[in-house]
Amino acid sequence: MPFHQSGEVSFDLRAFKAGVPRGSVLGPILYLLFTADLPTSESLTTGTYANDTAILAAHSDQKITSIILQTNLNDISNWLKKWRIKANETKSVKFHKQIT
């Protein structure tokens, strides 16, 4: 089913799996624009480098730290669903360090 037709030329609607090719000049700029509304919180720090994102939380009570992180992860999960992005679970890790 064509979604646009101009004269004798028509274009079919097709799904695509990924966006910007690796090493493209526009890649980093498009990533920043696309992730500008990534959910954050005043209770944590979000850091990005290239297309990687780290979420950091610190609190004297480990349970509160876990609650802060889980709440933000739930928000991010909803954001991912909204934008139809699949997180790479093999690159997703939890790191915990208790400072004494």
TrEMBL record:
GO terms for molecular function: RNA-directed DNA polymerase activity. It comes from the Eukaryota. Residues 1-100 form the Reverse transcriptase domain. Keywords: Nucleotidyltransferase, RNA-directed DNA polymerase, Transferase. This is Probable RNA-directed DNA polymerase from transposon BS. It comes from Eumeta variegata (Bagworm moth).
